[in-house]
Amino acid sequence: MQRLAAWLTGTGRCVVSLRQPGSTALGDRLRAVLLDSRSEAALGPISPLAEMALMFADRAQAIAEVIEPALAAGSIVLCDRFTDSTEAYQGAGRQLGSQRVLDLHAAVCNNLQPDLTLLLLPPLEEALTRARRRNHRQAQAHSSRQTKPADENRFERESDEFYARIHEAYRQIAARDPQRVLTVANDEAGDNSIDAIERRIRALVAPKLFGDEQHV
Description:
With 216 residues, the chain is mostly helical. The protein has 9 helices and 4 strands. The two termini are 16 Å apart.
């Protein structure tokens, strides 16, 4: 996302980037509760419905505080995760069902939809390994600075079956809304470097923004 933001900024666009949960004062506090694997030791088990509600509380605040003002100012908004992730994680992973998620999205987010969603969907095992390695690396980095270690492994501790449901849900969302959701899959030739993925993402974004690929 950082590379995409830099490229778009280079074309003269004003870009606002955020992540969910997080990116507001309230959202950062909710992120700590939702992602830290130590939350439940301090607070007790978080019910699936409460988890979904907190995700939407974060999203509603981000829309009001960041997304809507940025769109009104003519900026491009890049958001790392949105309601598709809630449908995948809580709807499928927690088995709450898609309809509950979509109903909440309509009610809480006024049904605000991205113009384009880029779905990076590597094979399930590869995605899990990467996420767990990243969070372990972040925790070690905080420890080396003698700060309180960051721990965002609450979801990464879930079972492979949990993540299989999520992976399939993302595939179903992309199939349901192919005009909005474009999948960035692994390259059949084996070139899945970050540079190659960036080139593929630019090729998907340019027609949406500029009407052609001349800016790639």
